[in-house]
Recover the amino acids of this structure.
């Protein structure tokens, strides 16, 4: 059975594409799926660092398309799960080292061997973006709850439509329930109102993400916290399950205690 | 009448390019190249009539046409009609309340059933109706009216060829910028998110004004339109 290829994209940089790719990949692998993550950000690769696999890279995507190694030689097996793989790209090359046709061939070849292929797209709408969407079946759009990233997401959705990738799904990242509640941050409704696509995930802002990213240990692997849970919910939705969106505003344990004792509201 | 050098015109006989008999060949040819190349994808593969009146081509000029046809994948057919035969219709600028002319130009209206997103441009020589939103960063240009059955957040330019009687109507009218004919106005700097229902923008005393779209008497109080 042929696998499904997703691109994780946003237009804007720094909204969390790489972190989300890493976490969704780990999440899918935790559910015993055969997964490969492709870093399409040639020249500015990060996915290997976030996955903690940087030191294992010998061959990369550019080597594969240039024919200096076989595809299997460039795949790096994750150190934690054997059904999770990374196809890194070259850091010392440029986006133009790969063409969309070459990328499509690689993705199609991987579809035969894996259930899920997640392509981590670079920021921007130029060559790197065009490479990253070549050969994929579906798109996950990442946005933060702020106008500039929503604007860029809108642009990306239009470009994906033009490329024949219909009905992308939306992941809203770095949501802070307290700020949304105060009206200081765009809420889910505001964003969906503009973008008019279906959400597949809402990821709360969490400083533990930075810690886990720096350690090269995606946060889903800890299995703890709202962030990990939110990522696993996205994974389940990708697999076709109906999972209700969790209430980010749910009071924490300390808040409950405070409320019972009567201090604070 | 001051006639232009090159006029591209479509009618039931197909697309015809009228070349002013009195214009210098090189000027006219260059303008023709510009006009056809600008819409290369649109014209590609089609037969185009070249109406040049009494003008006769030299061998060299014929060769230039042949090369152009080859390059743009066109099929040129030379006919003897002339530019002055062409009656340029007047812009539909005025319709008085009592004597409405049949609304034939609405027959060419473009209907778009999707959201126009940031970076996308709709540019159309007649009226445009969007069943969906026009998002910020998107632009709709029309020689006629623009109607958005949705949220207009981007830029709308109605009557782009100078028709000051054009209107812009949206269920939620919150454009970044509105242009009607040669008038231009921008959104206020303060964010205003209130839903005021369907509204219509039109030009009154050389300024763009907005009023609620009243379905009973939509055009009452309009001086033009």
């Amino acid at each position: 059975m042929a696998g499904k290829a997703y691109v994780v994209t946003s237009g804007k940089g720094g909204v969390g594409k790489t972190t989300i790719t890493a976490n969704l990949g780990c999440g899918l692998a935790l559910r015993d799926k055969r997964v490969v993550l492709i870093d399409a950000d040639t020249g500015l690769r990060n996915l290997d660092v976030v996955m903690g696999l940087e030191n294992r890279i010998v061959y990369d995507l550019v080597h594969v398309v240039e024919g200096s190694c076989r595809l299997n030689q460039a795949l790096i097996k994750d150190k934690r799960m054997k059904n999770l793989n990374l196809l890194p790209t070259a850091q010392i090359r440029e986006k133009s080292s790969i063409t969309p046709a070459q990328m499509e061939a690689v993705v199609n070849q991987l579809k035969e061997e894996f259930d899920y292929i997640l392509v981590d797209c670079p920021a921007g709408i130029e060559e790197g973006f065009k490479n990253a969407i070549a050969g994929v079946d579906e798109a996950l759009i990442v946005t933060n709850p702020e106008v500039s990233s929503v604007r860029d997401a809108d642009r990306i959705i239009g470009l994906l439509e033009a490329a024949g990738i219909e009905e992308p799904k939306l992941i809203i990242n770095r949501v802070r329930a307290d700020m949304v509640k105060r009206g200081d941050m765009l809420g889910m409704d505001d964003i969906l109102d503009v973008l008019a696509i279906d959400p597949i995930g809402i990821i709360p802002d969490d400083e533990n993400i930075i810690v886990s990213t720096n350690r090269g240990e995606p946060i889903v692997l800890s299995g703890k916290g709202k962030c990990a849970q939110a990522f696993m919910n996205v994974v389940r939705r990708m697999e076709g399950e109906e999972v209700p969106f969790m209430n980010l505003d749910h009071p924490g344990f300390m808040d409950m205690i405070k409320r019972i004792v009567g201090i604070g509201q | 009448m001051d006639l232009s050098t090159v006029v591209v015109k479509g009618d039931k006989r197909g697309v015809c390019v009228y070349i002013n008999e009195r214009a210098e060949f090189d000027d006219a040819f260059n303008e023709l190249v510009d006009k056809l190349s600008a819409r290369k994808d649109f014209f590609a593969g089609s037969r185009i009539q070249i109406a040049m009146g009494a003008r006769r081509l030299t061998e060299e000029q014929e060769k230039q046409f042949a090369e152009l046809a080859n390059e743009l994948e066109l099929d040129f057919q030379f006919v003897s009609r002339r530019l002055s035969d062409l009656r340029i219709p007047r812009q539909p600028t005025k319709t008085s309340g009592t004597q409405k002319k049949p609304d034939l130009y609405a027959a060419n209206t473009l209907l778009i059933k999707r959201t126009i997103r940031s970076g996308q441009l709709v540019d159309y020589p007649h009226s445009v109706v969007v069943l969906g939103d026009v998002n910020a960063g998107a632009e709709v240009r029309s020689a006629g009216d623009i109607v958005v059955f949705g949220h207009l957040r981007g830029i709308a330019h109605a009557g782009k060829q100078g028709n000051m009687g054009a209107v812009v109507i949206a269920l939620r009218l919150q454009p970044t910028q509105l242009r009607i004919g040669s008038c231009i106005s921008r959104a206020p700097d303060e964010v205003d998110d209130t839903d005021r229902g369907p509204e219509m923008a039109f030009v009154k005393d050389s300024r763009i004004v907005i009023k609620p779209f009243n379905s009973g008497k939509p055009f009452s109080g309009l001086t033009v339109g």
The helical segments of chain B are 25-38, 40-43, 59-72. The longest helix of chain B spans residues 25-38. The domain at 104-212 of chain B is CATH 2.160.20.70 (Pectate Lyase C-like).
